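User:
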Amino acid sequence: MKLADTDIKARLTTLSDIGITQSPTEVMKLIKDGHIPNLLNTALAAGKIIVDPLPVLESRNNESGALGSSTLDLELGVTFEVLSVPYEVVRIDDERVIRPFVVDCDPGHSRRLSLQETFGVTIIDQSWIRFTMEENDVFELSVGSQVNAFTRQIICLPHDLEGNIDGRSRLARKGITTHITSSRFDAGFCGFVTVEILNTSRCPFNLRPGPRICSIGFVQLSKPVEVPYYKKAGARFSGQH
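Assistant: Predicted structure:
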């Protein structure tokens, strides 16, 4: 069954609330190095959901809060994964925009920088690359294209809760699908959430770090799992960032 609104509020906490003072990057390194079981043992054993940084939960200034009746909205972060095809970085209205390369018929037009020349790109596999934007940058999602993006929040689930993410209806009505598949997060997952964003509309769509991009719901398990996700040997997405 889905947890009630009040139950989510009671279980929400940040890393600092349980005495973990490391930055998200440092926490992710600890997870990768295998030290996270001891570090998070207190929080996970107590049945806490770790959400860091915590989004604005309550409604303010006619803007709805991130906390729904049984879900929590997560915000779009700055790290993106794209197919390893030509992308360029251009200035539009004083904003730096990352978009698929546009061929210009004028050979004398000023040279534009490529994605690889502007950002430090990490090769994920033979076809995907990862890069991190600045807070004020814009990613132009072209029609029919997909981008994998990380949330701003780290989510750590206890041993007796499963998480499920879905896209937001306000984006779906504009033809932006998030999330496509693989929406389940096993008990004991800890890391940034990856959302697969697909533009099924007929116009390019600008993605900016910060707005709420998806929502996560929680399912109470009948008992804690024997092997939480972060302890599984093949948990390739544990501590993902």
